[in-house]
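Readers of this paper often ask what the protein records in our data store actually look like. Below, we set out a record of this kind in full and without editing:
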Amino acid sequence: MTGRQPVISRNNTALAFAATMTLAGFLLFQVQLVLGKFILPWFGGSASTWLVCMLFFQVALLVGYAHAYAITLPLPIHRQAQLQIGILALTLVLLPIAPSDSWKPADANDPTWRILVLLTVCVGLPYIALATTTPLLSRWLAHIAPELNPVRFFAASNIGSFLGLLSYPFFVERLLPSVEQTRWWSWAYVLYAALFAICGLVTITRAQNTKVVDASVRRAGNGDALRMWVVYSALGSALLIATTNAITQWSAVVPFLWVVPLSAYLFTFVIAFGYARAYSRVLFGGAFLLLAGASLALPVPEASFPLFIALVLQTATLFAGCMICHAEMVKLQPEPARLPKFYLAIAAGGALGGIAVVLGAPLLFRDYFEHPLVLSAIAWLHYCTCGRTAKDAGWLG
């Protein structure tokens, strides 16, 4: 009987951590749609409102990952858990997250900064707390249950995000008015906080009461790998926003048109982190080149060229491109002790890609050149990667 107890305890730990990461991923992405739909009519209903929202959430994700990385350096495991549980308790007083009517614009000025401040006040701290979940729990899990692979739990988080996206247009949006959606999300956040507290208490109980910071956490690591984590993540994020921007230029801005590309983007994370063997450089590289070429030659959808076909083609191109970026990124993943830095690099790249497309591209270009530029950059990087691999293997002189 005693021989089975460690197995049962390990399974319960894995279940608790996986459930917490999955719910966190669900809430992280569902709130983007909930608040995006809530404030869209206030700011004219244009595609730019949604793009600014996406940029905010990418930057907030980066702040959350940076916080998670920062507290893993000076603090022992049990202190990290105590601190994060305390922060979560403080965020509960900010609920519910429904914006008040006072945030409605009174003029027709550029609403970018107003939207960013609105989201910061309404959901900023809870969102940042949610964003710390995967990097912190992965780090704690690597310490208290080293036999479990914490990287696989990142896939669980992305499955939750995927479910959060798909459930919105088919269930949440249809069944609940906007104000009720914010209340429902707030109650789900309370449940998440309870689950996180359980994981934190398990960590505190099992962690040694010493300062556990091994050399692998403190050293800078491979600079080339760090740079490539950021580059791959930035290209995937930039392709997501550029594709979304292209799609929303063709029709009315509705949440479903946000969900389709974002779901494809997230699904590549699920495959890359959970089923890495499904990725083939030759297969996805060839598919991406064909799809990217077709996307660049795509005419503006009209009666003779249906929107549905254009949407499928653009989404398939996004999927292939992001699959390349994220799978190549996973090939360079570090040991479990350095996962917070890995996740921070992913978030930093995501924010940089979003800033480049949302803020940089309109200043540099008069037309939507960011989409073909990002496609070309991914194709070139993949070509260089394959060429370097072939040379290392002796296939090229």
Notes: The chain has two domains: 10-213, 216-397.
